[in-house]
Amino acid sequence: MKKITIFCDGKKWIVDKNLKTFSTHFGNIDIPEKIDGIEKLEFKGRSFYFYQPGISEFLLKIKRKTQIIYPKDVAVITFYSSLKETDNVIETGTGSGSLLIGIMSIVKKGKVITIERNEDFREVAVKNIENYFGKIPENLEFINGDVYDENFKIDIEEEWADKIFFDLPEPWKAKGLLKYLKKGGILVNYNPQIIQIKKFVEELDGFIDINVFELLERRWLVDEKRARPVDLMRGHTGFIMIGRKAK
Amino acid sequence: MKKITIFCDGKKWIVDKNLKTFSTHFGNIDIPEKIDGIEKLEFKGRSFYFYQPGISEFLLKIKRKTQIIYPKDVAVITFYSSLKETDNVIETGTGSGSLLIGIMSIVKKGKVITIERNEDFREVAVKNIENYFGKIPENLEFINGDVYDENFKIDIEEEWADKIFFDLPEPWKAKGLLKYLKKGGILVNYNPQIIQIKKFVEELDGFIDINVFELLERRWLVDEKRARPVDLMRGHTGFIMIGRKAK
Amino acid sequence: MKKITIFCDGKKWIVDKNLKTFSTHFGNIDIPEKIDGIEKLEFKGRSFYFYQPGISEFLLKIKRKTQIIYPKDVAVITFYSSLKETDNVIETGTGSGSLLIGIMSIVKKGKVITIERNEDFREVAVKNIENYFGKIPENLEFINGDVYDENFKIDIEEEWADKIFFDLPEPWKAKGLLKYLKKGGILVNYNPQIIQIKKFVEELDGFIDINVFELLERRWLVDEKRARPVDLMRGHTGFIMIGRKAK
Amino acid sequence: MKKITIFCDGKKWIVDKNLKTFSTHFGNIDIPEKIDGIEKLEFKGRSFYFYQPGISEFLLKIKRKTQIIYPKDVAVITFYSSLKETDNVIETGTGSGSLLIGIMSIVKKGKVITIERNEDFREVAVKNIENYFGKIPENLEFINGDVYDENFKIDIEEEWADKIFFDLPEPWKAKGLLKYLKKGGILVNYNPQIIQIKKFVEELDGFIDINVFELLERRWLVDEKRARPVDLMRGHTGFIMIGRKAK
Question: Do B230 and C235 touch (CB under 8 A)?
């Protein structure tokens, strides 16, 4: 982890760990050299806290060139697909790497292949992965390629992957990848548009137990005086389809 | 894993792995002896599939003597708390063991202590854990005790736990446990009642970055003819509070 | 109003007003002859209340041969379309008459034309309207016809209607009716399927300020001990599109 | 109605009807003198539309010194309470008059009494009512008073009102008003805080069929390319309690 969270009065910043000082409009604050769990610093009457960011707060602050997959969706995608440390995984597109960080935090012994055709996105994802894990994990391979291309191939055997994750505008164009999924393996398809999900489900063959859902996260203001939902909520991120390869 | 999923025509059963046959109203079906990913059996014009259940489908079918924590909440509780394989964890109450299965699927090297005062619940949880993991994992300790009791103690050092999970009707009565949480550690408090969350937040001292939210999972019917949300949805499971110990 | 509500212990029945008795599993209860606002009757230790049903509770209990439009949607459809007592209105299909009862409760001086091709549906709607209003209001005309038929015509002038309400599986096939809508008039299109809404919006020409939304009603259990959402909620009824004719 | 809507490219303004011109960053546009349903004006390549605002769009743009009650809630409050043109009504507090406009658009023959202790709020509400109805309707009476005051009285008989509407921070302090409600009459209590609803329900005596709910309005982006919920939605306005006076 190359980052550190600074928390003060309900606000949060995620900054480089090797920064010496953090500038606020009250002046510059020295960042503690060593952080044992959490460090607190009083500065001009305010309390500043320093600690290693959790995965969900990290994901909300990653660099992005694309819409990211939100922590609630990363949590449920990895959990509902029963992602395991020994799984072999294919993910496409890499995007800004939000889901990939979630995957890599679980898959330690299996191998993960992530495919993206946009080099700018990949650079951002690489940076985000490095920031979170300190370096690119050895079991992660970035492939630069266009999964819509009929001739696109990965240098692995068929039925290699335990899980495949799609975050593609037109997922049906990448159906060729499904030969790499094991019989009994899980496919997750994420898309902001329900119509794209529908078109994909219509074209999907040989999968069972297909479920489509969306998750709404509703934050509440709770303190001594109040207990009520926050006025503005994120009303939509994406739809999630999960299915199991049957043949 | 001592269980197997049988899937046919959108319906699903989770049965003992060592069962030889499964009885349907069409007659008895032989369960395949060995399942390599997924097995398919044609029986009187229907396709039956057999495979190892995923964690979320398993949780929905566990034995229960209590309200369970639903998969969507288990997913987000473990993810938002950045639960890691090396974490030391305290959980109370054990209940039917739904969250505990989620915790044990991640924590492989740390130690997990789960506390429950109701022996019936514990028995059910033990059975569920055994069914999922094949046996009770060695890094899991069940404690029979009443965390509301002022004299309740665990035989560990203070600031031992990286994460503490509460699923208690009156969580404020278990505040004594918070001394076992590390500085910088994460506390999750789950409760079906927002007023219980509010009372707990009011009494909580020394925690920062307290967030309260609920998750709504909305299933959609998607097939060739339809793309619409399911008529009846689970409108409520529980509220989740997450905070970080600051001192 | 030909109906009466009987309420006891949180349960509710809507029965014919001229019934003399109401049979329960405790025995038969005499229904009061005259009800002044509300009447209460003690019967074997329970309190039974009798009163004229409100419109929303009536709608939930109407006879139905179709999916009904739910009270929340009737409320918002009539309100967001600024329906007035003097408006001229076209509605199709009549269905079970749920939206129609909402319309007729507001439109007292304008005229309402409702069109349905299914005679069974119309009979049910007629019965429901009679039950609610005591008789068919004089300003309401039922037309038996197929609005998908290109030759379908109503014997009114073009630009006659202030408001048009569609509840049709394939609303784009009824676009011919839109010539009857005044310039500046409001069109509401209700549909359980978002894809049908999309197709209609794509084909709609000459309308501005088109809004699409859905309403979720989340019931809460609130009493001395509890304040939490009800476990099971209706997760979906339909999508509502509203637009204004611009030319 | 003293206002007019101007619509252009998905944006909307509500301005004084007697304005001659409307200034945009393209220059000043002449507002048509007479508007027959809807008028269209081409101006520097854009289409501007002019028409009388609907009630829901008007409510979203009223002057406000308080949180307003949103159109979705006004729609359902008036509908679920079966508000009729002949009803006698008490409403408190008046606030900015949003719910009051909804009430007055239905109650034409009954009398409406609205009570507010804050004179600034009342002035704003009077202005909003005048803007919508052209003048203060003759069946509407504004009372300046504090309904929390034990000695507060209205110069009407007990059991005069068919409906009573509360929008008060501490509604239990205004229980004295409930003597003015008819037996069988409807009470609506609106509050952003569920805990205030709970406290009121606990203290409420002699009411049956008490329902508490909240409404979520989820807007969708629908056009040729897209069909998906809007990213940001209003996640909360208020909780609504409805009950019927039983004695």
Answer: yes
Cβ distance of D184 and C36 shorter than 8 Å: yes
CA atoms in the 13 A half-sphere facing the CB of B96: 15
Distance, in Å, from the CA atom of C1 to the CA atom of C14, rounded to the nearest integer, reads: 11
How high is the ipTM of this complex?
Answer: 0.97
Nearest-by-Cβ selection for C232 from B192, B227, B232: B232
User: Tell me, which fold does domain B57-245 have in CATH?
Assistant: Rossmann fold (3.40.50)
Which residues on chain C are in Cβ contact (under 8 Å) with D10?
209
> With contacts defined as CB-CB under 8 Å, which chain D residues touch C227?
194-195, 197-198
Neighbouring residues of C138: CB distance < 8 A, sequence distance ≥ 6: none
Q: List the domain boundaries for chain A.
A: 3-53, 57-245
CA atoms in the 13 A half-sphere facing the CB of B150: 0
**DSSP 3-state assignment of A233?**
strand
Q: Which two tokens stand for residue C157?
A: 């002038």
Neighbours of C14 (CB within 10 A): 16
Beta bridge partners of A112: A89, A140
Interface test with B, best of C198, C199, C220, C228 (most B CBs within 10 A): C228
- A213, closest residue in chain B (CA to CA): B219
Chains with 3 or more CB pairs closer than 8 angstroms to A? B, C, D
Q: Can you tell me the mean pLDDT for D115-127?
A: 97
| Residues in chain A within 8 Å Cβ distance of C194 | 194
State the DSSP H helix or E strand holding residue A188, giving kind and residue range, or none if neither.
Answer: strand A181-191
Q: Do A218 and B214 touch (CB under 8 A)?
A: yes
Pairwise CA distance, residues D232 & D205, whole Å: 40
Give the pLDDT confidence of D49-81 residue by residue, as tens digits: 999 999 999 999 999 999 999 999 999 999 999
The distance of B208 to chain D (nearest Cα, Å) reads: 24
Chains that touch C (3 or more CB pairs under 8 A): A, B, D
Q: How many contacts does B have with C, using Cβ atoms within 8 A?
A: 49
Cβ-defined contact of D194 to A228 (cutoff 8 Å): yes
- Smallest CA-to-CA distance from C193 within C164, C172, C222 is with C172
Q: What is the token pair recorded at B195?
A: 């007023």
Mean pLDDT of chain C: 96
The SS3 of residue B134 is: coil
pLDDT higher than threshold 90 for residue B95: yes
Distance from CA of C175 to the nearest CA of A (A): 23
Chain C contact set for A195 (CB, 8 A) = 195, 198
- Cα C81 versus chain centre, distance: 14
pLDDT surpassing 90 at residue B247? no
C187: closest CA among C195, D228, C168?
C168
Closest to D112 (Cα-Cα) out of D88, D133, D128, D136: D88
A79 is written with which tokens? 């959990």
Token pair 């007990």: residue: D158
Tens-digit pLDDT profile for residues C155-167: 999 999 999 999 9
Amino acid residing at B157: E
Among B236, B237, B240, the strongest candidate for a mutation testing the C interface, having the largest count of C CBs within 10 A, is: B236
Output the six-digit token pair for C142: 């039922």
Residue ranges of the alpha helices (H) in C54-135? 55-60, 71-80, 98-104, 119-133
Measuring CA to CA, how many Å separate B47 from each of B41, C68, D9?
Answer: 6, 36, 54
CATH class for domain A3-53?
A: alpha beta
- The whole-model pTM stands at 0.96
Cα A173 from Cα A147, distance rounded (Å): 8
| Under 8 Å between Cβ of D72 and D51 | no
Q: Please name the residue ranges forming H helices in A87-155.
A: 98-104, 119-133
The answer to whether C232 contacts B234, with C-beta atoms less than 8 Å apart, is yes
Cβ within 8 Å of residue A136, ≥6 positions away: A126, A129, A130, A142
